[in-house]
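WARN  no MSA supplied for this record, continuing single-sequence
INFO  ligand: zinc ion
INFO  echoing inputs
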Amino acid sequence: MLVNTKEMLQAAQAGKYAVPAFNIHNLETVQVVARTAAELESPVILAATPGTVAYAGPEFLLAMAAVAARKYPVPMSLHLDHFQDPDMLIELIDMGFPSVMIDASHHPFAENVALVRSVVEYARQKDVSVEAELGRLGGREEDLEVDNSDAFLTDPAEAQEFVSATGVDSLAVAIGTAHGLYKAAPRLDYKRLAEISLRLSVPLVLHGGSGVPDKSVRETIRRGVCKVNIATELKVAFAAGVKEHFSVKPEADDPRQYMEPGKALMKQVVKDKILMCGSDGKGGRSK
Ligand SMILES: [Zn+2]
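INFO  complex generated
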Protein backbone atom coordinates (compact mmCIF):
# COMPACT_ATOMS: atom_id res chain seq x y z
CA MET A 1 0.00 0.00 0.00
CA LEU A 2 1.17 3.52 -0.72
CA VAL A 3 1.87 5.35 2.54
CA ASN A 4 2.41 8.99 3.39
CA THR A 5 5.96 10.14 4.05
CA LYS A 6 5.53 11.07 7.70
CA GLU A 7 6.50 7.82 9.35
CA MET A 8 9.26 6.93 6.91
CA LEU A 9 10.91 10.32 7.45
CA GLN A 10 10.56 10.08 11.21
CA ALA A 11 12.19 6.65 11.09
CA ALA A 12 14.99 8.13 8.99
CA GLN A 13 15.41 10.95 11.47
CA ALA A 14 15.71 8.50 14.35
CA GLY A 15 18.06 6.24 12.38
CA LYS A 16 20.23 9.07 10.99
CA TYR A 17 19.78 8.21 7.32
CA ALA A 18 17.71 9.79 4.54
CA VAL A 19 14.94 8.46 2.33
CA PRO A 20 15.64 9.17 -1.34
CA ALA A 21 12.87 10.77 -3.41
CA PHE A 22 13.24 9.93 -7.10
CA ASN A 23 11.32 11.79 -9.78
CA ILE A 24 9.42 9.41 -12.02
CA HIS A 25 7.61 10.10 -15.29
CA ASN A 26 6.26 6.91 -16.77
CA LEU A 27 5.96 3.15 -16.35
CA GLU A 28 9.65 2.51 -16.99
CA THR A 29 10.91 4.97 -14.39
CA VAL A 30 8.40 3.73 -11.78
CA GLN A 31 9.58 0.16 -12.42
CA VAL A 32 13.26 1.01 -12.10
CA VAL A 33 12.85 2.98 -8.87
CA ALA A 34 10.49 0.51 -7.19
CA ARG A 35 12.44 -2.61 -8.16
CA THR A 36 15.78 -1.21 -7.17
CA ALA A 37 14.47 0.03 -3.82
CA ALA A 38 13.02 -3.43 -3.18
CA GLU A 39 16.30 -5.14 -4.08
CA LEU A 40 18.12 -2.93 -1.59
CA GLU A 41 15.29 -3.08 0.96
CA SER A 42 15.08 0.69 1.02
CA PRO A 43 12.06 2.83 1.83
CA VAL A 44 11.45 5.02 -1.22
CA ILE A 45 9.51 8.06 -2.38
CA LEU A 46 8.32 8.34 -5.97
CA ALA A 47 8.06 12.04 -6.79
CA ALA A 48 5.95 13.72 -9.46
CA THR A 49 6.14 17.37 -10.47
CA PRO A 50 3.20 19.34 -11.91
CA GLY A 51 4.76 18.72 -15.34
CA THR A 52 4.74 14.97 -14.75
CA VAL A 53 1.15 14.98 -13.52
CA ALA A 54 0.17 16.88 -16.67
CA TYR A 55 2.20 14.51 -18.87
CA ALA A 56 1.18 11.13 -17.47
CA GLY A 57 -2.17 11.98 -15.89
CA PRO A 58 -2.76 11.68 -12.14
CA GLU A 59 -4.80 8.47 -12.46
CA PHE A 60 -2.04 6.65 -14.32
CA LEU A 61 0.59 7.80 -11.83
CA LEU A 62 -1.49 6.73 -8.86
CA ALA A 63 -2.34 3.37 -10.38
CA MET A 64 1.26 2.59 -11.35
CA ALA A 65 2.59 3.59 -7.94
CA ALA A 66 -0.13 1.62 -6.16
CA VAL A 67 0.75 -1.51 -8.12
CA ALA A 68 4.44 -1.01 -7.33
CA ALA A 69 3.67 -0.57 -3.63
CA ARG A 70 1.62 -3.78 -3.61
CA LYS A 71 4.23 -5.72 -5.50
CA TYR A 72 7.29 -4.70 -3.48
CA PRO A 73 7.37 -5.06 0.32
CA VAL A 74 9.15 -1.78 1.18
CA PRO A 75 7.59 1.43 2.49
CA MET A 76 6.70 3.39 -0.64
CA SER A 77 5.10 6.77 -1.15
CA LEU A 78 3.99 8.86 -4.09
CA HIS A 79 4.78 12.50 -3.44
CA LEU A 80 3.67 15.60 -5.35
CA ASP A 81 6.70 17.84 -5.75
CA HIS A 82 6.70 21.67 -6.05
CA PHE A 83 2.99 22.29 -6.45
CA GLN A 84 2.20 25.97 -6.14
CA ASP A 85 -1.57 25.84 -6.49
CA PRO A 86 -3.37 24.77 -3.28
CA ASP A 87 -6.63 24.10 -5.13
CA MET A 88 -4.91 21.66 -7.45
CA LEU A 89 -3.33 19.94 -4.45
CA ILE A 90 -6.70 19.55 -2.76
CA GLU A 91 -8.09 17.94 -5.89
CA LEU A 92 -5.13 15.54 -6.07
CA ILE A 93 -5.34 14.73 -2.35
CA ASP A 94 -8.97 13.81 -2.92
CA MET A 95 -7.88 11.47 -5.72
CA GLY A 96 -5.62 9.61 -3.30
CA PHE A 97 -2.13 11.11 -3.44
CA PRO A 98 -0.66 10.35 0.01
CA SER A 99 2.04 13.04 0.25
CA VAL A 100 2.40 16.56 -1.13
CA MET A 101 4.70 19.55 -1.27
CA ILE A 102 3.13 22.98 -1.33
CA ASP A 103 5.77 25.35 -2.60
CA ALA A 104 4.81 28.89 -1.67
CA SER A 105 8.43 29.93 -1.18
CA HIS A 106 8.12 32.65 -3.82
CA HIS A 107 5.58 34.48 -1.65
CA PRO A 108 6.41 36.77 1.27
CA PHE A 109 6.66 34.99 4.63
CA ALA A 110 3.12 35.68 5.88
CA GLU A 111 1.53 34.54 2.62
CA ASN A 112 3.75 31.48 2.51
CA VAL A 113 2.56 30.61 6.03
CA ALA A 114 -1.13 31.16 5.22
CA LEU A 115 -1.02 29.09 2.02
CA VAL A 116 0.88 26.24 3.61
CA ARG A 117 -1.35 26.19 6.67
CA SER A 118 -4.47 25.92 4.51
CA VAL A 119 -3.04 22.86 2.75
CA VAL A 120 -1.88 21.30 6.05
CA GLU A 121 -5.35 21.70 7.55
CA TYR A 122 -6.94 19.90 4.61
CA ALA A 123 -4.26 17.22 4.35
CA ARG A 124 -4.49 16.35 8.05
CA GLN A 125 -8.07 15.17 7.66
CA LYS A 126 -6.93 12.74 4.98
CA ASP A 127 -3.76 11.49 6.66
CA VAL A 128 -1.66 13.10 3.93
CA SER A 129 1.81 14.43 4.75
CA VAL A 130 2.83 17.95 3.74
CA GLU A 131 6.26 19.36 2.89
CA ALA A 132 6.89 23.07 2.39
CA GLU A 133 9.89 25.18 1.49
CA LEU A 134 11.38 28.19 3.18
CA GLY A 135 14.16 30.03 1.45
CA ARG A 136 14.46 29.64 -2.30
CA LEU A 137 16.61 27.34 -4.41
CA GLY A 138 18.06 28.73 -7.59
CA GLY A 139 18.24 26.78 -10.84
CA ARG A 140 15.67 25.12 -13.00
CA GLU A 141 13.33 22.19 -12.55
CA GLU A 142 11.04 21.84 -15.54
CA ASP A 143 8.79 24.90 -15.63
CA LEU A 144 10.04 26.12 -12.24
CA GLU A 145 12.91 28.47 -12.90
CA VAL A 146 14.48 30.68 -10.25
CA ASP A 147 17.08 33.25 -11.15
CA ASN A 148 20.11 33.17 -8.85
CA SER A 149 19.41 36.74 -7.79
CA ASP A 150 16.00 35.60 -6.47
CA ALA A 151 17.40 32.63 -4.61
CA PHE A 152 18.02 33.00 -0.87
CA LEU A 153 19.04 30.74 1.97
CA THR A 154 16.75 29.62 4.79
CA ASP A 155 16.90 31.71 7.96
CA PRO A 156 16.97 29.41 11.03
CA ALA A 157 14.81 31.63 13.27
CA GLU A 158 12.27 32.12 10.49
CA ALA A 159 12.24 28.37 9.87
CA GLN A 160 11.31 27.75 13.49
CA GLU A 161 8.48 30.27 13.33
CA PHE A 162 7.35 28.86 9.96
CA VAL A 163 7.09 25.27 11.15
CA SER A 164 5.21 26.11 14.33
CA ALA A 165 2.82 28.44 12.46
CA THR A 166 2.06 25.98 9.65
CA GLY A 167 2.27 22.55 11.24
CA VAL A 168 4.12 21.09 8.23
CA ASP A 169 5.48 17.56 8.50
CA SER A 170 8.79 18.28 6.80
CA LEU A 171 10.67 21.33 5.60
CA ALA A 172 12.75 21.84 2.45
CA VAL A 173 15.66 24.12 3.24
CA ALA A 174 17.83 26.25 0.99
CA ILE A 175 21.45 25.84 2.07
CA GLY A 176 23.27 26.28 -1.23
CA THR A 177 21.96 23.53 -3.51
CA ALA A 178 20.18 24.35 -6.77
CA HIS A 179 17.86 22.54 -9.17
CA GLY A 180 19.21 21.13 -12.41
CA LEU A 181 22.87 20.63 -13.27
CA TYR A 182 25.68 22.48 -11.51
CA LYS A 183 28.33 24.40 -13.41
CA ALA A 184 30.64 24.22 -10.39
CA ALA A 185 30.41 22.10 -7.23
CA PRO A 186 27.87 23.75 -4.89
CA ARG A 187 29.07 25.23 -1.61
CA LEU A 188 26.78 24.09 1.12
CA ASP A 189 26.17 26.08 4.28
CA TYR A 190 26.50 23.28 6.86
CA LYS A 191 26.55 25.71 9.75
CA ARG A 192 23.19 27.11 8.74
CA LEU A 193 21.81 23.61 8.33
CA ALA A 194 23.02 22.58 11.79
CA GLU A 195 21.40 25.66 13.28
CA ILE A 196 18.08 24.98 11.53
CA SER A 197 18.27 21.40 12.73
CA LEU A 198 18.81 22.46 16.32
CA ARG A 199 15.72 24.65 16.27
CA LEU A 200 13.36 22.24 14.49
CA SER A 201 12.04 18.81 15.28
CA VAL A 202 10.58 18.07 11.82
CA PRO A 203 12.63 16.14 9.23
CA LEU A 204 14.52 18.38 6.77
CA VAL A 205 14.55 17.94 3.00
CA LEU A 206 17.38 18.56 0.56
CA HIS A 207 16.27 19.60 -2.92
CA GLY A 208 18.67 19.84 -5.85
CA GLY A 209 20.49 16.66 -4.84
CA SER A 210 21.61 15.83 -8.38
CA GLY A 211 25.30 16.49 -8.86
CA VAL A 212 26.05 17.15 -5.19
CA PRO A 213 29.02 14.93 -4.21
CA ASP A 214 28.01 11.95 -2.03
CA LYS A 215 30.31 13.13 0.71
CA SER A 216 28.52 16.49 0.91
CA VAL A 217 25.08 14.89 0.93
CA ARG A 218 26.20 12.63 3.78
CA GLU A 219 27.31 15.73 5.70
CA THR A 220 23.79 17.14 5.32
CA ILE A 221 22.25 13.85 6.48
CA ARG A 222 24.44 14.00 9.56
CA ARG A 223 22.94 17.43 10.23
CA GLY A 224 19.28 16.52 9.98
CA VAL A 225 18.42 16.00 6.31
CA CYS A 226 16.01 13.02 6.11
CA LYS A 227 14.87 13.22 2.48
CA VAL A 228 17.07 13.80 -0.55
CA ASN A 229 15.49 14.67 -3.90
CA ILE A 230 17.02 13.28 -7.08
CA ALA A 231 15.63 14.20 -10.49
CA THR A 232 18.13 15.48 -13.03
CA GLU A 233 20.71 12.72 -12.67
CA LEU A 234 18.05 10.10 -13.38
CA LYS A 235 16.93 11.82 -16.57
CA VAL A 236 20.51 12.26 -17.77
CA ALA A 237 21.29 8.57 -17.18
CA PHE A 238 18.10 7.33 -18.84
CA ALA A 239 18.63 9.55 -21.88
CA ALA A 240 22.31 8.51 -22.14
CA GLY A 241 21.31 4.84 -22.33
CA VAL A 242 18.71 5.45 -25.02
CA LYS A 243 21.03 7.71 -27.03
CA GLU A 244 23.80 5.13 -26.90
CA HIS A 245 21.39 2.48 -28.19
CA PHE A 246 20.37 4.66 -31.14
CA SER A 247 23.94 5.59 -31.93
CA VAL A 248 24.81 1.92 -32.34
CA LYS A 249 21.46 0.91 -33.89
CA PRO A 250 19.96 3.92 -35.64
CA GLU A 251 17.28 1.68 -37.17
CA ALA A 252 15.94 0.64 -33.72
CA ASP A 253 12.19 1.09 -33.40
CA ASP A 254 11.13 -1.20 -30.58
CA PRO A 255 10.65 0.65 -27.29
CA ARG A 256 11.01 -2.66 -25.43
CA GLN A 257 14.56 -2.71 -26.74
CA TYR A 258 15.68 0.91 -26.84
CA MET A 259 14.28 1.68 -23.37
CA GLU A 260 16.25 -1.11 -21.70
CA PRO A 261 19.68 0.58 -21.82
CA GLY A 262 18.07 3.73 -20.38
CA LYS A 263 16.56 1.73 -17.56
CA ALA A 264 19.88 0.00 -16.88
CA LEU A 265 21.81 3.27 -16.54
CA MET A 266 19.07 4.85 -14.46
CA LYS A 267 19.04 1.83 -12.18
CA GLN A 268 22.71 2.32 -11.38
CA VAL A 269 22.01 5.92 -10.30
CA VAL A 270 19.07 4.84 -8.12
CA LYS A 271 21.28 2.23 -6.49
CA ASP A 272 24.13 4.66 -5.86
CA LYS A 273 21.78 7.24 -4.34
CA ILE A 274 20.15 4.71 -2.02
CA LEU A 275 23.60 3.73 -0.77
CA MET A 276 24.53 7.40 -0.42
CA CYS A 277 21.40 8.02 1.67
CA GLY A 278 22.14 4.99 3.85
CA SER A 279 18.54 3.83 3.45
CA ASP A 280 19.48 0.35 2.18
CA GLY A 281 18.24 -2.35 4.54
CA LYS A 282 15.97 0.14 6.34
CA GLY A 283 12.77 -0.84 4.53
CA GLY A 284 12.60 -4.54 5.23
CA ARG A 285 9.41 -6.31 6.34
CA SER A 286 7.02 -3.43 6.05
CA LYS A 287 3.32 -2.96 5.44
ZN1 LIG B 1 12.95 20.67 -5.67
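Residues 6-277 form a domain with the TIM Barrel fold (CATH 3.20.20.70).
INFO  checksum written, moving to next record
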